[in-house]
Amino acid sequence: MIEFAASRFGDPLLHATSVDDFDDRLDALTDSPEALYCTELLAPHMPLVQASLPMSAPLLAAAAGHNLEDTQGQVSKDPQRILEAWLDAQRQAAQLMWSTDGTPVSEAPFAGTDLPIEIEKLIFHGLRANFCGLAIEQVFSAGRLIPAWLAGALADRLVVSARQHLRLLASLPGVSVDEAIVPETERLDFAAIEAHHQRAKAASQRSYERARARLGL
Fold this sequence. Notes:
mainly alpha
């Protein structure tokens, strides 16, 4: 199934003709019901699979035959540490959610469809990072060379999105992430976020009801 997902959802990114086209393709994947369904099925297995892949920006650059130090510098001072922490946090989260004594997935802070925007954004970054990971798997499994601009786009989006998704993972009870990578000030207070979300929903509902009353509906 991993091979199918890498081919079906990773390969299209490698056929991008420009950075803008790459971003359009990546956005289309995150909006695809088929891709999202497949990602849900793969969720328990992705951390283990990704851990075996050459996920680092330097190795991705080697696939292109170019040095991406400048690009990495714009993304992060230490992309390798971020990627390693992200992979490890995903493994921890998967183990917690699928263990017999762990929190059921349905009770996780990011379960369901009615999510606060802060959490939705970070889940979105997780999807982007995983799709970039699938594309990288295609690069190395096929032993192919890719253009320098495409290697740069993959490395950039992978590290940036992994770093944002890591904020969500680091905030989960039972997941340990070095505070040097994700400081306490960047972690989420789920209770506070949910309370704000419910207040905003209530305020929106009141505004809606007042508008209907003014219209005599």
